[in-house]
Amino acid sequence: MPRRPDIDAAVEHIGRYAGRDEWVAHRREHLATMLGRIPEHFGLDLEGLFDEVGRLGHLSSMVGFIDESFLAAEFGPDRANVTDDYLRRRGWQETPRGREYLQAIRTTPPVLYEVCDVAWGEWVEVRDRQLGGIPLRIVEHSGSRTLQRWDCFVARVGHPRDEIMLTGGVLPLTRKG
């Protein structure tokens, strides 16, 4: 992934903001909704589930995906959203690109993508697996080192400052060989 310190800073800032008292209960509610009965199904508590997912090497992907989903979620009859609240109160401290990136997380639904082509260390070309269409070429240095043609993943693609980029919450879908 290209260096993006302004976006990394915006993500760090909103992460701290989402830990404020007024958002803690919503975050717990969202986590319970996202995971549903999965921990119970496997006979685990929440910590045990996170330990098991970590043991399998997918903890950062799962946490990133759930966190981004929380940043997009709406709560209550007034449809309160942590990203909207953060940008209204603190958005002035972010770069325009950082604000647009956070807004992309807020407004872009996750999509199932399939890798069409890869230039190792440079970019990946992906196509929406459900809608098809013209593939998107995404400058993605780290992802282009691990993804291969025909791999699938669920992610949001944002367009801050007209750049095409994957947001951080990428959920890889592995195939059994």
Can you describe what's shown?
Strands 3-2-1-4-7 form a five-stranded antiparallel sheet. Strands 5-6 form a two-stranded antiparallel ribbon. It has eight helices and seven strands. Helix 1 (5-17) crosses helix 7 and helix 5 (59-72) crosses helix 7. Helix content is 46%, strand content 19%. It has 177 residues and is of the alpha+beta class. The two termini are 28 Å apart. The relative contact order is 0.16.
List keywords for this structure.
single chain, two-stranded antiparallel sheet
Topology:
Elements: H1 5-17, H2 21-35, H3 38-41, H4 46-55, H5 59-72, H6 82-90, H7 96-107, E1 111-119, E2 123-128, E3 132-139, H8 143-146, E4 152-155, E5 157-158, E6 165-166, E7 171-173
Antiparallel strand pairs: 1-2, 1-4, 2-3, 4-7, 5-6
Helix pairs in contact: 1-7, 5-7
Distance between the termini: 28 Å
Low-confidence stretches: none
The helix content is 40-55%
Order of helices and strands: HHHHHHHEEEHEEEE
Major sheet details? 5 strands, antiparallel
Strand order, main sheet: write it out. Answer: 3-2-1-4-7
Structural class: alpha+beta
| Cα radius of gyration in angstroms | 17 Å
Short structural summary:
With 177 residues, the chain is an alpha+beta fold. The longest helix is centred in the N-terminal third of the chain and has 15 residues, at 21-35.
